[in-house]
Structure formats: structure tokens, C-alpha cells
Specification:
By secondary structure, this protein is mostly helical. The chain is built from 16 helices and no strands. Helix 4 packs antiparallel against helix 7. It is globular.
Length: 462
């Protein structure tokens, strides 16, 4: 049975329609994208374990750290073993993480939540994230931005499904919980049941993705595609750079800084999204004018912006180039963050607009970076290089929530915070984006001394 997971069993036959591959990638990314909906039940976990926001925020940070580390460590293995085996391994870890996390919530053991959802689930996140992306880049060498956007928009859109579904299931599992009432939070037992439910649903959908994924045969090219045409575009190479050589180039570390800064800025909002919009808008008595249900809807809307940005902006990068699009992400994002910090409390519509723009750039940055890597280093070991670069996501997964939660914990208790309490954290993000903007400006083509011999690029990944 395990032989069905081997790479050779996934090679597509002649005449295979490459447009059948994106649904398989989406099946996995929509499931692991649930990680962006953790803010929906964050307050419930704070109350259940009787700990600080930072202590619960660490669960999210651990998951993102393990995502980056597992992607870095397993990147070459994914290229060598193929996407089906990698997606099956991802499903096993992700589902197990939910079940162990549910046990931790049910028994009041926070360390089990760290271990399950954070460590084990985070490993599943990393493997599941890179395997469809590297496969789609090989299927769409003529439109790498579109290809990565199709895969990664599913990760950004996971919360679009998980957020409202979580709210409905929590209401069903805890009759005393009313999402329309400000301050209402579900019981810990309801969150534990939610985790078990997600484990079952994700096992089914991720199994479908692993069963239907295919890789192109060696030497396959889309009809009418000439690789030599890519040479006409700035920063795009037709040569190949191995993962080992890529980490010796300055371009790798500049892109690491770019990704770290873009992710840190976006993840700070995502991790705190539901409480944040409630805190920004309070009446004279300190009661939020935004209900829990409306805050959950805001999380879903951010997921839409995140998802749309991954597809629209990455596709746009195929036209204007990867470096210019990152100038938009970081430069315009910097200005938008500043406007959110200074004027976000003026009205909910303005707040939502600013946050949605920031999250569209956040999503676009994720979707565009594999194509950026493909332009600079070629397709030879792009999955492995992408995996190593995702350590920037790990670092940002710690930095973003710590910046926000650290400032908020110093300002007051959850449920009493206002827009003023968020301003220092938001202005810090402005400075972070400025650093990323400068790093992107410094990116240049990779020197030829790092290129692999021509014959090496024609061999299968090692």
C-alpha cells in the first residue's frame, strides 16, 4: 500500500491536463490554512487555561516556527520523494496535532496543546505547504506567479471556511455560548470537540489531495513554451542553483529579510484579528460596539483579502516582475499600516479597508516568493530552497505575535484595551516594513559561479 505514495506512481501520463493539479493542491492548503482562524477561539482558551494572551499566542507561534523548520529540513526530501508521499505525511501530522491538542484542552494541560497543535501540527503545516507549491511551479513554468498563487491562495483562504464554521460548531457544542453577545466565550470542552471535528474533516480532504496529485514527466513542457524566452526578463535565469549553493548567495538572505518583514507585519494582525477589531471600537462605558459574531466575520473577510491577494498580486507579478511587486507590498503596506495606526479608529469601514489591504499584501508576498526564487535560482531544487527560506516565516511567527501581545499585555487586560493600546505595536510594524523595502531594493541576479552544470539541471531532484 505504501508503494502507492512513491514518486514514480504519481508521474502524469502523456496528454494529462495540468489544470487538474491545482484542485489537489487546494485540498491540502485549504485544510492547513485553518491556522489563520485561531483568533476565533483565542479568548476561550485564555479563559479556559486562565493564562495571558501571550501564553495562548505562543501556540500559534510554535506552529509557525515548526512550519518553517520542517519545510527547511524536509524540503529536499519533498523534491526527492514526490508530493503524494509528502502530502500524506502532512495529513498524518496535521490530524494528529489536532487530536493531541484536543486532549490537552479537555484535560487542562496547556503543554499538550503546545505539543499537538504547535509542534506536531506545525510539522504537518511545513510539509503540506511546500509540496503542492513546488509541484505547481513545475507544471506552470510559463506562469510561475499564477501557479504559486493558485496553490497558496488556498492556505490564505482556509480561515474563510474555518472561521464561520468554527463559530457555528462552537455554538452547537456549547449551548450557553452566543456569538452575537459581546464578551461571550465558549467553554473549553467545546473547543476540544471543535478540534476533533477538524481532525476528521481535514483527514478526508487531505487524503483526496494526496490521491489526485500528479507530477510532470522529465522533460515535459507546456505547448508553445520556450524556456529561452524567460531570459529576456530582468532577474530571471534559465540556469539552475542547488539548495546548497542558494544559501551561499546574498540574494537568499535578502529575500529572507524581505519575507520576514512582510510576514511579521501581516501576522501581527492575523493572530489578534478578532479581539483587535473589538478593542478598536468601544463606547463610553468601555463596551465594544463590535459583537463576537461580527469580529468572526471580520476574520473571514481578512481571509478573503489574504486569499485574493495571493492570487491577484502573484499573477500581476508575472506581468510587472517580482521585484516591483514587492516594492508595492512593502512600500504601500508601510503607508497603510501608518494610516491604520493613526486613523483606524475613525470608523469600522476604514479600519476594515486598511486591514484588508495589509492582508492582501501579506498573502501576495507568500504567493510570489516561490516564483521569485524560481526566477533567481531556477526550478532544479526550488522546493528545497523554498523550504529553507520559510525559516523567515518561523522567525516572523514569533516576532509578529510577540510584538503585538507584548505591547498589549503591558497596556492592560483583555477586554479593556482600546485603539491607543495598539498604536505602539502598529508603528513598530511600519519600521519593520521599511527594512524589508530596502532589502528588496538590493536584490540582484545570482552570480554565475553559483550555477549548476547544464547536465545537472536535467537530472531528477536528488
Amino acid at each position: 500500500m505504501l508503494s502507492l505514495l512513491d514518486r514514480q506512481r504519481t508521474v502524469a501520463p502523456p496528454g494529462f491536463n495540468r489544470w487538474l493539479v491545482p484542485p489537489a493542491a487546494l485540498a491540502v492548503h485549504l485544510c492547513i490554512g485553518q491556522v489563520y482562524a485561531t483568533s476565533v477561539y483565542k479568548t476561550a482558551l485564555v479563559q479556559h487555561f486562565e493564562v495571558s494572551q501571550t501564553a495562548i499566542g505562543i501556540v500559534f507561534s510554535i506552529a509557525i516556527v515548526m512550519l518553517g523548520l520542517s519545510a527547511a529540513v524536509c524540503g529536499t526530501w519533498v523534491d526527492r520523494s514526490g508530493p503524494r508521499k509528502a502530502m500524506a505525511a502532512s495529513a498524518a501530522c496535521w490530524v494528529t496535532g489536532f487530536l493531541v491538542g484536543a486532549l490537552g484542552i479537555a484535560t487542562g494541560q496547556l503543554w499538550l496543546l503546545y505539543l499537538g497543535y504547535g509542534v506536531i501540527g506545525g510539522i504537518g503545516l511545513g510539509i503540506g505547504y511546500i509540496s503542492p507549491v513546488s509541484t505547481l511551479i513545475k507544471w506552470f513554468p510559463d506562469r510561475p506567479g499564477l501557479a504559486t498563487g493558485m496553490a497558496i491562495m488556498g492556505f490564505g483562504g482556509g480561515a474563510l471556511i474555518a472561521s464561520p464554521l468554527s463559530t457555528r460548531l462552537l455554538s452547537a457544542y456549547d449551548p450557553g455560548y452566543d456569538s452575537s453577545v459581546t464578551g461571550s466565550a465558549p467553554a473549553g470542552s467545546a473547543v476540544a470537540l471543535l478540534f476533533v471535528t477538524f481532525a476528521v474533516l481535514h483527514a478526508l480532504f487531505m487524503a483526496y489531495g494526496a490521491a489526485t496529485i500528479r507530477v510532470p514527466a522529465d522533460g515535459w513542457r507546456p505547448d508553445g513554451f520556450d524556456p529561452a524566452s524567460l531570459k529576456q526578463k530582468a532577474l530571471v535565469t534559465t540556469a539552475s542553483v542547488s539548495a546548497r549553493n542558494a544559501i551561499r548567495t546574498p540574494q537568499f538572505y535578502l529575500l529572507w529579510i524581505v519575507l520576514f518583514c512582510n510576514v511579521t507585519a501581516g501576522i501581527g494582525i492575523l493572530e489578534q484579528a478578532s479581539p483587535m477589531i473589538q478593542d478598536f471600537f468601544r463606547d463610553g462605558g468601555g463596551v465594544s460596539t463590535v459583537s463576537v459574531a461580527a469580529a468572526g466575520g471580520f476574520v473571514g473577510l481578512l481571509s478573503m483579502a489574504n486569499m485574493a491577494g495571493r492570487f491577484v498580486w502573484s499573477s500581476t507579478s508575472d506581468v510587472i516582475g517580482r521585484k516591483p511587486i514587492y516594492m508595492v507590498y512593502l512600500g504601500v503596506g508601510l503607508v497603510t499600516y501608518l494610516l491604520l495606526a493613526l486613523f483606524g479608529q475613525v470608523g469600522t469601514a476604514l479600519f476594515v479597508l486598511f486591514a484588508a489591504v495589509i492582508l492582501s499584501f501579506y498573502g501576495g508576498g507568500f504567493a510570489t516568493v516561490p516564483a521569485y526564487l524560481r526566477d533567481l535560482f531556477g526550478t532544479f531544487q526550488v522546493g528545497a530552497i523554498h523550504g529553507r527560506l520559510l525559516t523567515a516565516w518561523s522567525a516572523a511567527g514569533v516576532a509578529g505575535p510577540l510584538i503585538v501581545n507584548g505591547f498589549l499585555d503591558a497596556q492592560g487586560d483583555p477586554g479593556t484595551l482600546t485603539a491607543e493600546a495598539y498604536r505602539p505595536a502598529l508603528l513598530t510594524m511600519v519600521a519593520v516594513l521599511a527594512v524589508g523595502f530596502v532589502a528588496n531594493l538590493l536584490v540582484r541576479p545570482v552570480a554565475s559561479r553559483f550555477h549548476e552544470p547544464v547536465t545537472t539541471s536535467e537530472r531528477s531532484p536528488r
